[in-house]
Amino acid sequence: MAKKKPHQTESLDAWAAQLAALDGDDTTSRRRKPPITPQRIVQAALALVAAEGFDALTMRRVASALETGPASLYAHVRDKAELDDLLIGELCARVELPTPSPDAWMMQFKAICAQLRDLYLANPGISQATFSGAPRNLHALRINEGLLAILLAGGVEAQPAAWAIDAAILYVGAYSLERSLRQADSQGVDGQPCDRDGIAARLRMLPASHFPHTVAHLREIVAGNGHERFDFTLDLLLRGLALNSPQPGQELAAGPGKP
């Protein structure tokens, strides 16, 4: 019986490999995973936060979602703190900044804060990452720059504008965190509802002799639907700025005999 020549064997092996690939048996190509990148890490982390909340976020959980080990993540992200900063930066990059308008500066300022609030609420608890220190991400600084431009266009002086932005950013983060925590833990330590009706029921039990004003104004204390309290606080901040700032094209009137 004649033996197969070496080149014939190689040719048949290559032919068999091509046929196997047609049937989807090329396991090497099927098992090849996309490379780990900072963007993939961020997207996997955000998906985890959106589904389970910020407290569930760990480097190990993100690595598991990407079907790799934690060591693969550390080649791109230094630690959990840097990952948190990247997540906040990603959310801030999604905020649309308008061209500053002297006639609509309050509305523009509130709209940016509302965008940031909604992004935080869509990723429960993530706003607590903004309290860890000074912003290190350019996307986060972009929000500050946009808000500062809007306040300056509205005639607010630089110093109160800078402090107002700091207060507003802190408020947006705290408001979003509190809402997220209430949604995650809808019951108090005693197992009773901790929503507005539940709070009202607790306050209603207070003795008027010790808490006369709280009992008398209970309806006002628990009032507010949706984000009414959020809007109220920002309105209070911005109207305070307006009262103490000359509007564009106007100057503070000088009294008689004053230069």
From TrEMBL:
DNA-binding residue intervals: 58-77
Pfam families: TetR_C_1, TetR_N
Domain of life per record: Bacteria
HTH tetR-type domain sequence ranges: 35-95
Keywords, alphabetical: DNA-binding, Transcription, Transcription regulation
Protein name according to UniProt: TetR/AcrR family transcriptional regulator
Organism: Chromobacterium aquaticum
